[in-house]
Write a structure and sequence with these properties.
single chain; alpha/beta; 8 helices; 268 residues; 3-ketoacyl-ACP reductase; Rossmann fold; seven-stranded parallel β-sheet; globular
Length: 268
């Protein structure tokens, strides 16, 4: 195998992407399909799933299947894995992508239920899926892979977004601990830390932060970009490309790492 060939994942990988019917998750799912993988996604939005499956019905491979699921609901997680067994017959890659932005506000202004929901969706769900995936990943012929989506907010402080930042920091701790625990089973575990990713979700985050600070959207966006060394937002495709590399032979020596794909965000 040449070095160039090592940059592409093995064909036929069985991949589960949480939160995979829209946004970064959908871009990751389609990237794996393009690489010859079979992909199952779960998502909390029936509308997003319907749109995905409608688009897939017009493709030749029709390689993505889906389950409606709230990732913070353990019963829903069980349904996802029942579908994974039925659709894929096993698992080689878990992409723990699902997450929410959570509330924006000072710590003394935050509602406790909003804090709990953010932690449930962004952190606890990653535990629920990893716990169920590991027995399947141990049976993977090529060795299993878990990729956890953290955030640049998982390496920097993020004022007024403390529930989100706390959960994303915790994901890094979970990743590094699981890499040590699962390495002897030939399962690699890494985290990707996207930065300011271009798209509707980031637009909502900027708008909420602008309102919190009494700024216009344009002023807030300019402040965000000024803190990125490359002075531009990251694209979902750049995040997906990193996920593909981590699941390729070229990434087979990488585990226990939190890899920022962010243009070097200097501060939040």
């Amino acid at each position: 195998m040449t070095v160039l060939q090592m940059l592409k994942p093995h064909a036929g990988l069985r991949v589960l992407v949480t939160g995979g019917a829209s946004g970064i998750g959908l871009v990751i799912a389609r990237a794996f399909v393009d690489a010859g993988s079979r992909v199952h996604v779960c998502d909390a939005s029936q509308q997003a799933i319907d749109a995905l499956l409608e688009a897939e019905s017009h493709t030749e491979c029709n390689a993505i299947t889906a389950t409606l699921a709230d990732v913070s609901d353990q019963a829903a997680v069980e349904r996802v894995f029942a579908d994974v067994d039925a659709q894929l017959g096993g698992l080689d890659v878990l992409i723990n992508n699902a997450g929410i932005a959570g509330p924006t506000g000072g710590i003394d202004e935050l509602d406790a239920s909003a804090w709990e929901q953010t932690v449930d969706v962004n952190l606890n769900a990653q535990f629920y899926f990893a716990r169920r995936a590991v027995p399947l990943l141990r049976q993977s012929k090529e060795g299993g892979t878990i990729i956890a989506l953290s955030s640049v907010a998982g390496r920097l402080g993020y004022a007024y977004r403390t529930p989100y930042a706390a959960a994303k920091w915790a994901i890094v701790g979970l990743t590094k601990s699981l890499a040590i625990e699962l390495g002897p089973s030939n399962i690699r575990v890494n985290a990707i830390q996207p930065g300011i990713v271009k798209g509707p979700r980031m637009e909502r985050v900027i708008a909420a932060r602008a309102e919190q600070l009494g700024l216009t959207y344009e002023q807030m966006e300019k402040e965000y970009l000024a803190k990125i060394s490359l002075r531009r937002m990251t694209t979902p495709e750049e995040v997906a490309a990193t996920a593909l590399f981590l699941c390729s032979p070229g990434g087979s020596g990488i585990s226990g790492q939190a890899i920022s794909v962010c243009g070097n965000v200097e501060a939040l």
